[in-house]
Automatic annotation (TrEMBL):
This is Leucine-rich repeat-containing N-terminal plant-type domain-containing protein. InterPro entries: Leu-rich_rpt, Leu-rich_rpt_typical-subtyp, LRR_dom_sf, LRR_N_plant-typ, RLP23-like. The lineage of its organism: Eukaryota, Viridiplantae, Streptophyta, Embryophyta, Tracheophyta. The keyword Membrane applies. Residues 1-28 form the signal peptide. Coiled coil: none annotated. Residues 33-70 form the Leucine-rich repeat-containing N-terminal plant-type domain. Keywords: Cell membrane, Glycoprotein, Leucine-rich repeat, Membrane, Receptor, Repeat, Signal, Transmembrane, Transmembrane helix. It is a single-pass type I membrane protein. It comes from the Eukaryota. It is found in: Cell membrane.
């Protein structure tokens, strides 16, 4: 086996108690073989910059060292070296193999192993590192290069770690499919495998893990159809399948009392209608379906559930009041967006409905009560937006491209935090109002309108880096553009 730590790393390691039910935590006399084990471990590393390891000396009881916790028996129960600067240039020849794995293999009661975010850590033989850690419940290897393919890592985990509850291997250079042997890890509750190169189908057995609360498989290369059972998994709180372009799926039915808080399937091949039962997800705070193929109207249940009937007969049917982010960009949703009563989602911060097929005459004042609304995108639908009698005081990013606007939304005049404004492809006529140059805009797109006059502004936002005025019938002096271009 070869493990090389070629640069600085942060290392944290917890050792379980042999007496995990012990109620008292007192400082006992360190058991001498454990003291030797820890000193050997220290000596295998360059710890000159580690404050904690500086206190590890032969002459003192190891239970008094920084980062060590003992129970009454003097047995080391926890070793926490997180955020310590440790380094090593350690491979076969200079003893890493001899020390770390043997050291770990003695620690068969290790509950948590956290080697994440150690730059340039390679672990080509995952099996060897974990094979004796049969009590391990939490494994964090984020950023560790395991260069393991599906069958290999799945088998290494299942043959050695039957009690695993947390599996976090984000950016761990995994590839191939999820091995069917993983079905044995029934205690898994958190599975974080984002940003690898995993492929093949997402297997149904994941839904059978009765304690599964988080399943994050984003930014891989999964394909096939996501089993409906996974979306209905009763304890699942966060599901992120985004950025798997070949992954298909649809929402059939969300059962009552579902636990989902975050549902992210953007940038996949998901599609179909949003079912009325999406309203059962009364704990939902984040739903992201951008760049998918959803069709049909936004279900009325989204509105229904926003009535917060705390004294009502169905307490689980409270509300989506806490929804902060609703991103449905770039689907084929149609009907009127007024099927949802937006003012009853008071916590919305980001609302993306652009690039769908919504229609109707929509007063922008429908969003007026959303005090926290910062990002609003209604662009490229078949809607006519009426911006009169509106104020959206906290909007920082507003995209009303292709919204059949005929004049500048007046309320923009009063916005101090606006940095992104897209009013392109409308029928806005007349001159560009001078107040537009008094804002702190970074990006302003007024292209493809009916604007005719451009007065030389006395001041242009110093932050502006995008200004698009093409496709108008502008006349006037454009000398100020030098000012823009030179900033
Ligand atoms: C240990 O790390 C320190 C800090 O980077 C470095 O100055 C020192 O040369 C290293 N010692 C060895 C033996 O590599
Ligand atoms: C695992 O434990 C066995 C026996 O307890 C030992 O012989 C072996 O060296 C250990 N393996 C590793 C990789 O530490
Ligand atoms: C990951 O490890 C493998 C095997 O040791 C090596 O061939 C590969 O270059 C490493 N990849 C990166 C990005 O470090
Ligand atoms: C991803 O894995 C496939 C095999 O499953 C392999 O052909 C491809 O080169 C890998 N891509 C990267 C970027 O590692
Ligand atoms: C699920 O969690 C409960 C409560 O923590 C526990 O009793 C049960 O054994 C767990 N199930 C599995 C399969 O680990
Ligand atoms: C993703 O998987 C498909 C086959 O399912 C393969 O053709 C493609 O090359 C893979 N993409 C990457 C980036 O590995
Ligand atoms: C939902 O939960 C409530 C209480 O939390 C319970 O009374 C009700 O039976 C549950 N409904 C279903 C369908 O499980
Ligand atoms: C909404 O958030 C508040 C405070 O953060 C919390 O007390 C409440 O339980 C949440 N409601 C739901 C339905 O999640
Ligand atoms: C909530 O209360 C309102 C009146 O206070 C009532 O009209 C509505 O039907 C109730 N909704 C639920 C789901 O109980
Ligand atoms: C929405 O689209 C579906 C399928 O394309 C169509 O059957 C339906 O009539 C449309 N509804 C509206 C209100 O345009
Ligand atoms: C929203 O705007 C109001 C009025 O301008 C202000 O009092 C409030 O603090 C703002 N909220 C946020 C989240 O910026
Ligand atoms: C745009 O607005 C005009 C009235 O201002 C209306 O006649 C026309 O039908 C609207 N176009 C669309 C696509 O809604």
């Amino acid at each position: 086996m070869k493990i090389s730590l070629v640069s600085w790393f942060i290392f944290s390691l917890y050792i379980a108690t042999f007496f995990s039910m012990a109620a008292l935590s007192v400082s006992g006399q360190c058991q001498s073989h454990q003291q030797q084990l820890l000193l050997g471990f220290k000596n295998s590393l360059n710890s000159s910059l580690s404050v904690k390891l500086g206190t590890w000396n032969q002459g003192t009881d190891c239970c008094s060292w920084d980062g060590i916790t003992c129970y009454a028996s003097g047995r080391v129960t926890e070793l926490d070296l997180s955020s310590q600067w440790l380094s090593g240039e350690i491979s076969n020849s200079n003893g890493f193999t001899g020390k770390i794995p043997v050291g770990i293999s003695y620690l068969t009661k290790l509950v948590t192993l956290d080697l994440s975010q150690i730059s340039s850590l390679e672990m080509p033989n995952l099996k060897m590192v974990v094979q004796n850690l049969t009590g391990l419940k939490n494994l964090y290897l984020d950023g560790v290069n395991t260069s393991a393919n599906g069958m290999e890592w799945s088998q290494a985990l299942t043959s050695s770690l039957p009690n695993l509850q947390v599996l976090s291997m984000v950016r761990s250079y995994l590839s191939g499919p999820i091995g069917p042997s993983l079905v044995k890890l029934k205690s898994l509750s958190i599975i974080l495998l984002d940003d690898n190169n995993l492929s093949g189908p997402i297997l149904k057995f994941l839904a059978e893990f009765q304690n599964l609360t988080s399943l994050h498989l984003a930014a891989n290369n999964f394909s096939g159809s996501v089993p409906e059972e996974i979306l209905q998994s009763p304890k699942l709180q966060t599901l992120d399948l985004s950025s798997n372009r070949l992954l298909q799926g649809s929402f059939q039915n969300f059962p009552p009392n579902a636990s989902l808080q975050s549902l992210v399937v953007g940038d996949t091949d998901f599609g179909g209608q949003l079912p009325e039962s999406i309203g059962n997800l009364d704990l939902l705070t984040r739903i992201e379906l951008a760049h998918c193929k959803f069709t049909g109207p936004i279900p009325k249940t989204l509105e229904k559930l926003t009535h917060n009937n705390f004294s009502g007969p169905l307490p689980s049917f409270t509300s989506l009041r806490n929804l902060t982010e609703l991103i449905l960009l770039d689907n084929q949703l149609n009907g009127s967006i007024l099927s949802t009563n937006w003012s009853s989602l008071p916590n919305l911060v980001s609302l993306g409905l652009g690039r769908n097929s919504f229609s109707g005459l929509i007063p922008l004042s429908s969003f007026q009560k959303l005090n926290n609304l910062a990002v609003l995108d209604l662009s490229y639908n078949h809607m006519s937006i009426d911006s009169s009698f509106t104020n959206l005081p906290n909007v920082t990013s507003l995209n009303l491209a292709s919204c059949n606007l005929t004049k500048f939304p007046e309320f923009l005049k009063n916005l101090s935090n606006l940095y992104y404004l897209d009013l392109s492809s409308n029928q806005i006529h007349g001159e560009i109002p001078s107040w537009i140059w008094k804002t702190d805009l970074e990006s302003l797109n007024l292209s493809l309108n009916l604007l005719v006059e451009l007065e030389t502004p006395s001041h242009v936002s110093p932050y502006m880096f995008v200004l698009d005025l093409h496709g108008n019938q502008l006349q006037g002096r454009i000398s100020f553009l030098h000012q823009v271009l030179s900033t």
